[in-house]
Amino acid sequence: MLYQQNDLEILVSTMNQKDLGFLYRMFPDDLWQSISVLVVNQTDGEELQSGFENVKVVNCYEFGLSKSRNIALQQAEKDLVLLADDDVIFEHDFAAKLLHAFNKNPFTDVVRFRYTQNGKQIKKYPQAFCQDLNWFQVLDISSVELAFKRKVILETNVRFDENFGIGACFPIGEEAIFVSDLKNKNFRISGEPEVILDHPGETTSKRINSEMLYFNQSAVFFRIFRNKYVLWIFLKLFFDLKQGKIGILQIPKLISQAIKGKKQYVKNSRL
Question: What is the DSSP string of 221-254?
Fold first, then answer.
């Protein structure tokens, strides 16, 4: 069976929206009117309403990006789902690219696509189709790159870890943890060299300083690799030094912050 556009659903996480005007900014040529869209609106006041048959709105009074993603996964109905934020701008042919990727690789469960930032490619992606992402690629994943078959959610209890993501104790890493949990359950995760959207502005990891980045990244590494997390901390130190992101005199402080981050995650996960 070949997937068609009516098999696709866009899962949009947003906050405190009063109308659906943001969809016009996200989709060129009003494409959202011909695609199923599920909007999770986290609000502390007015509820968002939809007057469109193809747009389902779920209002939520709890905050946190991972909470929003999990609600979207629970409420999704179509066979293929694509995660989205309310500030992305989709390519006019993004749906065709997505459907083609799954149709030409029927055994793939999750596909990572490319995105640009303000029109520029900021990540180092594989130049060709990648059948199975390695751990370095998994750790570099952003949620807006991810499309997957809904069956991977129905067949497992894999969800976004609500200790991670914007609004949680650790504001980064939720997408890498989500994909790593799927990878550990032997789902096939591939990479497609196609750009499907532009994401203006900086990512969360770019907006925090080095010390807080190591605090948070250590928790992510421990959540994924457990006692091997130390190896990944030292790999990060090595590459950050090599790329000039940190200086050698910063290393003791960064290691200290990494240890604190791991301890904080352990403490939180016991609550």
Answer: HHHHHGGGHHHHHHHHHHHHHHTTSS-GGGHHHH
Domain end marker among 205, 230, 249: 205
Q: Are residues 178 and 226 in the same domain?
A: no
Q: Is the domain of 168 the same as that of 236?
A: no
DSSP string, 170-225: B-S-HHHHHHHHHHHTT--EEEEEEEEEE--S--GGGGS-HHHHHHHHHHHHHHHH
> Domain ends where: 189, 205, 221?
205
For tokens 């790999």, what's the residue?
Answer: 235
Please tell me the total count of domains within the chain.
2
Identify the domain containing residue 221 by its residue range: 208-270
Kindly report whether the global pTM for this prediction surpasses the value 0.85.
yes
pLDDT, averaged in runs of 10, over the chain (271 residues): 95 96 92 95 94 96 96 97 97 97 96 95 90 95 95 90 95 97 95 95 74 97 96 97 95 97 92 50
59 and 171 housed in the same domain? yes
CA atoms within 13 A on the CB side of 57: 20
SS3 21: helix
For helices 251-270 and 210-225, the axis angle rounded to 10 degrees is 50
